[in-house]
Amino acid sequence: MKLLGRLASINVRKVMWTAAQLDLDLEREDWGPGFRSPKEPEYLALNPNGLIPVLIDGDFVLWESNSICRYLAGKFGATTLLPTEPQSRARVEQWMDWQGGELNNSWRVAFMALLRGQPATPEAIEASVTNWNRHMTLLDAQLARTGAYVTGDDFTLADVVLGLSAQRWKNAPITRAELPAVDAWLQRLSTRPGFADYVGNGMA
Fold it and tell me: Where are the alpha helices (DSSP H) in the chain?
């Protein structure tokens, strides 16, 4: 089993952190800026979107990082990370989908301008920061309700994907809202296997 993608990618790191929770020695091969281009025909044959990461498991190929995390949890029977009971699983997947859609879209303009140097007006950056903080406040309220992890007492894949997103928010050069539940949750996450390597490693 092999993962294609450079470690600087937050989407690669969420898969690698999932693998760490599973005590899985997942081989990784560098692709992306500074390494081999995912626009090469060899890579596009695996993922026509030309994005990282891609998981190769024998003759099975899978792209989309959240789907890869779900696949690994299912393959190795990690029912705490991804429950089999329909309502519990739906809660985890709801927050994973929220991360991949709503939360990611909120920070895109500010992050790409401030950390990746893409052009954007000050007004657009300010609006994105405001939206980013608003979405993180929603997460803070959820964590205040559960008092532990995103969906309740157990650490799940929702914590994996949102933990990386929250760390990005903490590292970004922006004015942040005061979110005590998020801060306490990140402290809890810091004790998990692989956190230092894939979340708290200074990479945004």
Answer: 10-21, 41-44, 65-75, 86-98, 104-114, 122-146, 157-171, 180-189, 195-198
What b-and-e string marks burial along 141-151, b requiring 16 or more CB atoms within 10 Å of the CB? ebbeeeeebbb
* Domain contains 42: yes
pLDDT for 37-54, tens place per residue?
999 999 999 999 999 999
For the stretch 54-100, pLDDT in tens is 999 999 999 999 999 999 999 999 999 999 999 999 999 999 999 99
Residue carrying structure tokens 């696949």: 71
- Which residue range(s) make up the domain with 116? 86-192
Instruction: Tell whether 12 and 59 lie within a shared domain.
Output: yes
- Helix (H) or strand (E) holding 28, with range, is strand 27-29
Closest CA to 1 of 16, 11, 14: 16
Q: Find the CATH number of the domain harbouring 168.
A: 1.20.1050.10
Query: Number of structural domains, the chain?
Result: 2
Q: Specify the amino acid at residue 82.
A: L
Let me know whether 147 and 116 are in one domain: yes
Structure tokens that stand for 174 in this block: 């922006």
